Amino acid sequence: MERRLPQTQFTKREILDIVNDTRYNPYTGGLHFPKPFSDRLVKKGKLSFSSDRGAPIDYEFVDTHTLRWLFHGFDWREEYYEAYEAADNVIFFFHTIKGSTPPEMRSFCVDFNTNRVIINNAQIGNDEYTSRDTSNRMSFGQLTGKTVSGDPHEYTDDLVGKVVAWEIGSGIWLTHHYINTKFFLNEIVPGPDPFLTIAEPAQYVKIDGKKQLYLFSWREMAGPGIMGWDIMDFSNMTSVGMFYGINEADRFECYCFTRSSGKLLSVEDRKKICKDGLSSIL
To answer: Which domain holds residue 236?
Structure first.
């Protein structure tokens, strides 16, 4: 049985052409329900991020959508970026890296409560799969020169066993089953019968267990191979995240989405969904 929906396969050269196609705006997409942009980083001006994977990266936030970044020993580079408030004093921002081969991007979770950061480096092109599938690598670090507090960010099994219904748009709901530390089950249930149920590769990172703040990363391997990266606030049942990759329409996307509300589901909730559909428990 074929475990993936049919996808057009491209050469690495064709992938670059898709990413560089200026006819389409990659910062909007089918699930584009963003929060207001944050100017918190502009007010900070300059920040430096250190991690466990190499030299610090310096950033200057020029305005709400323009940043400059520098690896020590190289020249400053300017990029478009977007930043959002993920939780109290926690900022999520991301940008692509123009001219990179293969195409690359970075996303960040910056916790000003503890001065700790999570840096995610992603690319389009996965040697283990296909040239259109994404791959990513996360590193844990801090604001350079700042004193850190709280527990270190780390991979976690805290979410294993939980089932959550998330609203990803006005009246658009899906369920996540965090089945183990390597995979989750993504399910769309508009009525008594599931429309779609897929197991996808996933990673979970604890940002702040006391505040129930977690980072969730996954790859849509049953579909076009795009990456999702999502900061989930279980104390308020909201989240903010992004998609990155080549979508089902064979267009490049790199855009923010939000989950405006959610609900932890019990076993009884799951039984009721199977009988009457997801709307019966919302």
So the answer is: 12-281
Task: Kindly report the pTM of this predicted structure.
Answer: 0.93
Residue 66 lies in a domain: yes
Q: What's the domain count of the chain?
A: 1
Q: Does 2 map to a domain?
A: no
Is residue 4, in this structure, part of any structural domain at all? Answer: no
Task: Report the C-alpha gap between 213 and 228 in whole angstroms.
Answer: 17
Residues 6+ apart with CB under 8 A from 42: 61, 62, 63, 64
- pLDDT tens digits for range 10-66: 999 999 999 999 999 999 877 767 788 999 999 999 999 999 877 899 999 999 999
Contact between 158 and 206 under an 8 Å Cβ cutoff? The reply is yes
Place of tokens 């993920």: 86
Residue 104 resides in a domain: yes
As a whole number of angstroms, the distance between CA 14 and CA 20 comes to 10
